Amino acid sequence: MNSSNFTLQESYCSYFNDVRDFYLPLHGYTSLIVCLFGSVANLLNIMVLTRREMSSPTNAILTGLAVADLLVMLEYIPFAWYTIYKATSPSTKELYTYSLTLCIYLHSNFSQVCHTISIWLTVTLAIWRYIAVAYPQRNHEWCGPQKTILIITSGYIVSPLINIPLFLAFSIQPVTKTLNESGYITDNASVAINTTIYLIDVSELGQKNDNLLIDINFWVYSIVIKIIPCLALTLLSGGLIWALMQAKRRRKQLMQGSKKTPRNIENDRTTDRTTKMLLAVLLLFLITELPQGILGLLSLFFGRRFFERCYVRVGDIMDILALLNSAINFILYCTMSRQFRKTFSLLFRPRWLPVAQTENGINLNHTTTMVTQV
């Protein structure tokens, strides 16, 4: 990389410095709050979506997504505590012990696997919903319960395999540093103590063949895990909007000259609400994932210096965006899905409260659910 390119990168990345310096002291507390809320929210999602009256292929995918997001939340809580602890300026000797470094290494790998599962299921959700709207007559054949369970299970199996280059590219390495009596790095030889600390760095395997494995890791992360899913979701979201408009047009043509029944009106509204809610889920995913993919791709082209000087500087900000993405679905379901709200209220309604009834006195506990309803 020539000096002009490096200067350009430094100038571009310097815009992130002020934001990073402002947010960095807040990250530990902010991420801890988001993770605590997200853990409860995703647990509630699982409890509601697995109810018998909520059974459908779409809700099965949303359940698998909630499980992956719950794992992300629970796993990130110890790392949030570590971030808070790091902000108290502990000594180098205390901060870089083998056990703490091992926890960080496991955190980076496990969180990436869970996040890949979420990406897999989000793309699947978009495909399933597009088929439901564009090809309703083939929906049960192409997106039946067995195929849905198979694709969910595949996501949990394939995602760790996709991330194998990440596991192999980095390792925990002992490094000897000169520390003072308090455990901080020093240049004063008179009070120096040689101490072994542990850092995560490129492994021996990652350094072979001119860092080939590192390049493969960036390609997998940027292209396979980020860019391709984002492009797919963009196309599917556009196709879903177009298919929804076409379906409305067809329904309008079919109903011309005939009176619409309340059942038909409610079915149309249910389909529209479900599709709009899932579009919100997809768009939220794009907002949080696409910037990471672009920065990862730039790191591949500009080299490790760009990764260290640019990508890492906004790492905490991208982390909190990803955590918000994993935590906020509960709010989307509650605000955009009447069936979710109804099931949630029935599930957590105090037993001493009377059961809501229709005008005909029918118990709402026995309402049925459409297959595509959320």
UniProtKB/TrEMBL annotation:
UniProt domain G-protein coupled receptors family 1 profile: residue ranges: 41-333
Transmembrane spans: 26-48, 60-84, 104-128, 149-172, 218-245, 278-302, 317-336
Localization per Swiss-Prot or TrEMBL: Membrane
Key words of the record: Membrane, Receptor, Transmembrane, Transmembrane helix
GO CC annotation: plasma membrane
GO molecular function: G protein-coupled peptide receptor activity
InterPro entries on file: 7TM_GPCR_serpentine_rcpt_Srw, GPCR_Dmsr-1, GPCR_Rhodpsn, GPCR_Rhodpsn_7TM
Coiled-coil segments on the chain, per record: none
Pfam family, one: 7TM_GPCR_Srw
CDD domains from the UniProt entry: 7tmA_FMRFamide_R-like
ATP-binding recorded as keyword: no
Source organism superkingdom: Eukaryota
Family: Belongs to the G-protein coupled receptor 1 family.
PANTHER family from the UniProt entry: MYOSUPPRESSIN RECEPTOR 1, ISOFORM B-RELATED (PTHR46273:SF15)
Name the record gives this protein: FMRFamide receptor
